[in-house]
Amino acid sequence: MGAHHIDRPADLDLVRESYDRVADNYAHMVLTTGIGDIRRHPWLKASIDAFADTVGGLGPVLDVGCGPGTVTAYLAERGLDASGVDLSPRMIENARRLYPQCRFGVASATDLALEPASLGGVLGWWSLFNLPRDVLPQVLAHFSRALKPGGHLLTATHVGDEDAARTEAYGGVPVRWTTYKWQPEQLTALLERAGLRPVAELRLPADEHTGPGVVLMAQRPT
Q: 147-158 and 164-169 as β-strands: parallel, antiparallel, unpaired?
């Protein structure tokens, strides 16, 4: 297997336990309110569609931090060989229940055995912001190595200068995690250092549900 050492976040178990606690509420929120469902957000859907159009035919696609599997299932509907992984076993239980036709597994972004040049695409869709600042570059480098030449990484995350320590989420459920925020220029630099070439950027202003965000797509050069 494509083993590659990545530092284990000190709070990984706390983050896993927190997402296990909110998993049911989060899945229910996506299904009933549309928050987190790309089909209800034209610009986010357009980003996923562009990703799907770009990586289609290049090989398997891995959705890292897939949550209840909504985007993984959408990519599969688009004809991609898509599978999802998530740190939270309860999130994966929900994904398997909601989308039994798709493949899902429990895994941390920091503990994936990925073969070099084995994937056409990697998705980190609002799922990498819990990775500490010294760990995210290691994960991006691992993703870069796993992409085939011409393959793409699509990531989306929260923008800001100050990190946020969360103590409750999704209906007041107690959690313990840090949301690490980045400026788009900082994240672009990390992608470039990982050996990827940024090809598209979408900046999102704050709305009634969340703060500002950014979507970035980058290619492993051919």
A: unpaired
